[in-house]
């Protein structure tokens, strides 16, 4: 019979038997709460028509639940010491594979295409390493359009930034980058006590569903994202001050006035459509 890999006693026994210690350099915290493991998979709504991409499977707690529900699980694990343990823990399942590689260096499209032809959907479901959560998300979004849904455990503070709206304290450049591509919502709040070892922060699970068709159309997408990034350089500063090193201040004042914005406006007050309006203005007048 398969082991309950997400069981707290099993995790502790496995770590002790294999002399494993959670490695800070890989951001390892092993999820032990079986209820939350099942909730994550339920939120993903994966089924036998789904190829699941997992990042950082650890000891395989989430992987095991995914194997029961999904058609196939392709897991990226950077820690080579965990590979044989993972394969042993998951020996009762034949619908998974493990790639011993940093997800940031992987050719995701190529890996997915090896399996995708037999599956209708491709979802990413993962307990992400907290120290590189944002790079993993942005890197994956930029590398592939094959993944249409992301269900990700992350630090609660990061979850708030991903899902926040304009004029809120957590609204940031990453909020715009994510919401430009799809709809992001926090679906599960997770206490730090759900992990071994317990991190110093609470966590949350965010589900991001990408738009089936592109929703936003700036004239120059790179210019748009460059403007967003520069606008949030220092949150307390006005747009004029943040953009002052990039464009002549007189031009910025004129741009804001011509587009109906007050000169004291800050980046956190602007929506995606507002930033598109400004980037299109810059494209027309300066580029």
In terms of topology, how is this protein built?
Elements: H1 8-17, E1 30-31, H2 34-44, E2 50-55, H3 61-69, E3 72-76, H4 83-89, E4 96-99, H5 108-113, E5 121-127, H6 133-143, E6 149-155, H7 156-163, H8 173-179, E7 182-190, E8 195-196, E9 203-210, H9 221-231, H10 239-243, H11 249-258, H12 272-285
Parallel strand pairs: 2-3, 2-5, 3-4, 5-6
Antiparallel strand pairs: 1-8, 6-9, 7-9
List keywords for this structure.
single chain; 287 residues; alpha/beta; Rossmann fold; Helicase, Ruva Protein, domain 3; 7-stranded mixed beta sheet; two-stranded antiparallel ribbon; 12 helices; 38% helix
Outline the structure in words:
It is a single chain. By secondary structure, the chain is of the alpha/beta class. It has two domains: about 10-210, Rossmann fold; about 220-285, Helicase, Ruva Protein, domain 3 (Orthogonal Bundle), CATH 1.10.8.100. The protein has twelve helices and nine strands. Strands 4-3-2-5-6-9-7 form a seven-stranded mixed beta sheet. The protein has a two-stranded antiparallel ribbon with strand order 1-8. Helix 4 links the parallel strand 3 and strand 4 (about 95-100). Helix 2 packs across helix 3. The N and C termini lie far apart (about 65 Å).
Tally of individual domains = 2
Q: Describe the global form.
A: elongated
Q: Given this structure, which CATH class of the largest domain is correct?
A: Alpha Beta
CATH superfamily of the largest domain: Vaccinia Virus protein VP39
Please count the helical segments.
12
Low-confidence regions: none
Helix content: 25-40%
Alpha-carbon distance between the two ends? 64 Å
CATH architecture grouping of the largest domain: 3-Layer(aba) Sandwich
Tell me the strand order in the biggest sheet. Answer: 4-3-2-5-6-9-7
Q: What is the C-alpha radius of gyration, as a whole number of Å?
A: 21 Å
Write the element-wise H/E pattern from the N-terminal end onward: HEHEHEHEHEHEHHEEEHHHH
Provide the structure class: alpha/beta
Largest sheet: 7 strands, mixed
User: Could you tell me the number of beta strands?
Assistant: 9
**Overall pLDDT score:** 90
CATH topology of the largest domain: Rossmann fold
């Amino acid at each position: 019979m398969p082991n309950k890999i997400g069981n707290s006693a099993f995790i502790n026994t496995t770590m002790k038997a294999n002399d494993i210690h959670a490695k800070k350099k890989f951001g390892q915290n092993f999820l032990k709460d079986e209820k939350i493991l099942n909730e994550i998979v339920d939120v993903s709504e994966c089924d036998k028509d789904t190829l699941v991409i997992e990042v950082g499977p650890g000891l395989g707690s989430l992987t095991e639940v995914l194997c029961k529900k999904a058609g196939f699980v392709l897991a990226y694990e950077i820690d080579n010491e965990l590979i044989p343990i993972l394969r042993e823990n998951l020996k009762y399942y034949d619908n998974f594979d493990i790639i011993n590689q940093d997800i940031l260096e992987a050719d995701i499209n190529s890996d997915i295409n090896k399996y995708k032809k037999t599956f209708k959907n491709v979802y990413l479901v993962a307990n992400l390493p907290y120290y590189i959560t944002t790079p993993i998300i942005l890197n994956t979004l930029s590398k592939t359009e094959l993944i249409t849904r992301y269900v990700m455990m992350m630090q609660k503070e990061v979850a708030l930034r991903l899902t926040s709206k304009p004029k809120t304290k957590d609204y940031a450049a990453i909020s715009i980058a994510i919401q430009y591509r799809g709809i992001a919502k926090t679906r599960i709040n997770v206490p730090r006590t759900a992990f071994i070892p317990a991190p110093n922060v609470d966590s949350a699970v965010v589900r991001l569903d990408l738009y089936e068709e592109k929703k936003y159309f700036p004239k120059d997408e790179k210019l748009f994202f460059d403007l967003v990034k520069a606008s949030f350089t220092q949150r307390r500063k006005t747009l004029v001050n943040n953009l002052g090193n990039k464009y002549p201040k007189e031009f910025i004042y004129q741009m804001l006035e011509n587009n109906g914005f007050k000169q004291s406006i800050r980046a956190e007050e602007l929506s995606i459509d507002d930033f598109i309006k400004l980037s299109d203005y810059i494209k027309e007048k300066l580029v």
